[in-house]
Write a structure and sequence with these properties.
With 491 residues, the protein is mostly helical. Helices cover 83% and strands 0% of the residues. Helix 6 packs antiparallel against helix 7 and helix 11 packs antiparallel against helix 17.
Length: 491
C-alpha cells in the first residue's frame, strides 16, 4: 500500500492561501524590525516622549475611524471596477474634507480641543494630527483597493517598508535629539513609504479603466453605500471607545496599577490578532463577497470558524495556565499581579481571535445595521461589567466579569455572523463548543504537569500537542475542500 497523504495534500495550494502566508510573513518581519529597534529607541527617547507618541496614535486612531464615513470599506463590493473607482473618489473626498476641518479647528481652538480630550501634552504637535490623518486614511483606501485587485504582494511590501522605515526614521531623528517630534515624524515617514506604492497601484488601475471620477458617480456611491456612513461609522466609533474604556475605567475607578496590568496583558495577547486576524480579514474579504454571490458563503464561514477555533483555543488556554507562573520572573516583582489579569484576558482574547476575521462577512453581506447593534451591545456589556464588579465585588472579580462579558459577546457575534452568511447559528454554536471542549482536554495535562510534576505526564502533554496539530491540519484541509481560499478573481 502506498502512503499518499503527503504535505501537498495537507496544505492547500490555493492562490489566496499562498497570499495569506506571504502577508503573515511580511507582517511578522515588519513587527520584528520594530521590536528589534525598541531597545535602541528607549535609550534615545524618554518615557514621557513615548507617552506623547501614545497620545498622538490614540487620537489619530479615533479620528481615522470616521474620516471616510467608512465608505472605504465598500471599495471591494461593486462588481464593476469603474463603480469601485467612484467609491475610492468618494472616500478620498471625505478624507480631504475631514482633514481640512481638523486643521481649521486646530488653528482656531487646537489647545482647547486637546484639553477637553485630556491630551493637552499634544498641543505643540497638533498640526501633525491632520497630516497623519491624511496619510493614514489614504493608506487605508489604497490597501482596500489592493485587496479588491488581489495585489497582496503590494500590501506585504508596504508592511515591510513601514516597519523598516518607521524604525530607521525614529532612530535617525532620535540621534538628532528631536524628542517627541522625532517619534511622531518617524511614524508619519514610515507610513508614507507604504502609501506611495499603493497610490501607484490605484493610479495605474485608474488609467487602465479609462473612466473618470465625476460628481454624479460619487453621488451614486454615497447613496448606494449610505449604510456605511449611517451605521458602520458609528459602530466603528463605538468599537474604538469600548476598546479604550477598560483602561480608563480601571485607572479611574480602581487602581492605575490594574490598568497597567491590563495594558501589558493586552499588548502581549493582541499581537496574534494583529498578525493573523487582520491579515486573514484582508485576504478573505474578496472570497466572502464571491461566496455571497455564489451561495457558498455559509460553508466557507463554518470552515474558517473551525480552523480559527482550532488555532486559538488551545494556545490561549495554555497561556492562561502559564501566565501566573511566568510573568513575574519575566517582567520583575513590580508586575507580580499581572499574571492573574493576563490569564483572564487570554480567555476572552481567544474568542476575539475567532471573531475578528469573521467580522468581514458583515461587510460582504452589507450588514451594517447588525454591526451597529452588536457594537452598541458590546460597549454596554463592557462598561456595565466593570461598573458592577467595582461596585459590588473586588478588582479581580471586576476583571473576571469583564472577561465573561467579552466571551459572551464574541460567542454570540460569531453565531450571528454565521447566520447572516447563510449557515445555521446552531451549527456554529455546536462547532465552537466542541472545539473549546477539545482544547480544554488538550491543555488539561499541562495544568496537571505543573501542579503535580510527574515524569509520565510530559509524554501526555506531547501527545496532546500532536492531537492539536492534527486538528489544525484537519481544519486547513476542510478550508481547502470548501473552496474558501482556493481561488480568487480580480474585479
Amino acid at each position: 500500500m502506498t502512503f499518499r497523504w503527503g504535505w501537498p495534500r495537507i496544505f492547500p495550494s490555493g492562490k489566496l492561501l499562498r497570499n495569506l502566508s506571504f502577508l503573515v510573513s511580511a507582517t511578522f518581519l515588519g513587527q520584528l524590525i520594530t521590536f528589534a529597534a525598541t531597545p535602541f529607541l528607549t535609550r534615545l527617547y524618554s518615557p514621557g516622549e513615548f507617552g506623547i507618541l501614545g497620545v498622538y496614535v490614540g487620537l489619530l486612531g479615533v479620528v481615522s475611524v470616521v474620516a471616510h464615513l467608512r465608505y472605504e470599506m465598500a471599495i471591494p463590493l461593486p462588481a464593476r471596477r469603474g463603480a469601485a473607482l467612484q467609491v475610492v473618489g468618494l472616500a478620498l473626498a471625505c478624507l480631504l474634507a475631514f482633514s481640512a476641518l481638523l486643521l481649521v479647528l486646530g488653528l482656531g481652538a487646537g489647545q482647547r480641543i486637546l484639553a477637553l480630550a485630556g491630551s493637552a501634552v499634544l498641543a505643540p504637535y497638533y498640526w501633525l494630527l491632520p497630516v497623519g490623518l491624511l496619510l493614514t486614511g489614504a493608506y487605508q483606501v489604497g490597501t482596500l483597493w489592493a485587496v479588491r485587485s488581489g495585489a497582496y504582494h503590494a500590501i506585504a511590501v508596504t508592511r515591510l517598508q513601514q516597519g523598516a522605515g518607521t524604525a530607521a526614521a525614529q532612530l535617525g531623528l532620535g540621534l538628532m535629539q528631536c524628542g517627541a517630534l522625532g517619534l511622531i515624524l518617524g511614524q508619519l515617514l514610515g507610513q508614507s513609504l507604504g502609501l506611495l506604492r499603493l497610490a501607484k497601484l490605484v493610479a495605474r488601475d485608474y488609467r487602465r479603466q479609462g473612466a473618470r471620477l465625476s460628481a454624479r458617480g460619487m453621488r451614486w456611491a454615497a447613496t448606494r453605500y449610505r449604510q456605511f456612513a449611517l451605521f458602520d461609522s458609528l459602530a466603528s466609533l463605538l468599537d474604538v471607545l469600548s476598546s479604550n474604556a477598560p483602561s480608563i475605567l480601571f485607572a479611574a475607578l480602581i487602581d492605575p496599577a490594574l490598568a497597567g496590568y491590563y495594558l501589558l496583558s493586552l499588548r502581549l495577547l493582541s499581537a496574534p490578532i494583529t498578525l493573523v486576524g487582520k491579515t486573514i480579514s484582508q485576504v478573505y474579504l474578496p472570497a466572502a463577497i464571491a461566496g455571497r454571490r455564489s451561495g457558498a458563503l455559509g460553508g466557507q464561514v463554518l470552515a474558517l470558524q473551525k480552523i480559527l477555533a482550532c488555532v486559538s483555543f488551545a494556545p490561549f488556554f495554555a497561556f492562561a495556565i502559564l501566565a501566573p507562573r511566568f510573568l513575574e520572573p519575566l517582567f520583575g516583582a513590580a508586575w507580580a499581579g499581572a499574571g492573574d489579569i493576563a490569564a483572564l484576558t487570554a480567555l476572552w482574547v481567544s474568542w476575539q481571535f475567532i471573531y475578528s476575521p469573521l467580522s468581514v462577512v458583515l461587510i460582504a453581506v452589507e450588514g451594517q445595521r447588525t454591526n451597529l447593534i452588536m457594537q452598541l451591545v458590546c460597549c454596554v456589556l463592557r462598561v456595565a461589567s466593570i461598573l458592577v464588579g467595582y461596585r459590588f465585588f473586588t478588582p479581580t472579580v471586576a476583571v473576571a466579569l469583564f472577561a465573561l462579558a467579552n466571551i459572551l459577546f464574541y460567542l454570540a457575534a460569531s453565531c450571528i455572523v454565521a447566520d447572516r452568511a447563510g449557515a445555521r447559528w446552531l451549527s456554529s454554536l455546536r462547532q465552537l463548543g466542541v472545539e473549546m471542549a477539545l482544547a480544554a482536554a488538550i491543555v488539561a495535562p499541562v495544568q496537571l504537569a505543573l501542579g503535580a510534576p510527574a515524569p509520565w505526564l510530559w509524554p501526555v502533554v506531547a501527545l496532546c500537542a500532536a492531537v492539536w496539530a492534527l486538528s489544525v491540519l484537519s481544519g486547513i484541509r476542510r478550508l481547502r475542500n470548501c473552496g474558501a481560499f482556493a481561488a480568487e478573481k480580480t474585479i
